[in-house]
Amino acid sequence: MIRSTDIQPDTYKSGAFLRRWSISEASGQAVCVEDAYAVADTEQATLDAQTERNGKIKGALADVEELEAARRVAEPDAETPRTVTVTDFEGNESTEPQAEWAAYDAAQATISDATNLMNDFEVVRRGQPAETLPVMKTIEETIVDEEGNETTRSVEVVDVEAEPTANPEFAEWQAAWTSVGALNG
Questions:
Q1: Which pick of 88, 98, 131, 175 has the fewest CB atoms within 10 Å?
Q2: Which residue range is the domain that position 42 belongs to?
Q3: pLDDT in tens, 50-73
């Protein structure tokens, strides 16, 4: 997986080529699927526009990585004190936030301050879900063991005769992609 720190420098081969970063619709990952621009053969306006696009993608990627990291910070146990008392080398005491709680509080601030683009990008990075979901039905299945004994159990199977239903996760992903896809220019 490409990280925001991997999107630099934009040029390679001693500045002869400019990468063309974009966000993959299928995976939500940063990719270079378009041929790079040969700097010597490309108008400066095109190079400037691509450099700006690359910068927006890198910035959005860094933001969503920060949000994803914040969501992984677990809340400390209730027994963990919120503050600790520390004594300096002169014997003076002061109260400081406990490290686990400070990290958790910072993560919660990141989550609550997340922009719509950050939240949408997080949804897109989970991958494109199926557009529809199968309809399930319960059937009774008879099982015969080696001794000829029969038992019946209920089993969930796909109802092949029913129309699939709309997947609500796809609608959420599609709305998020509209926002994130705009980064591709």
A1: 88
A2: 4-82+96-128+167-184
A3: 999 999 999 999 999 999 999 999
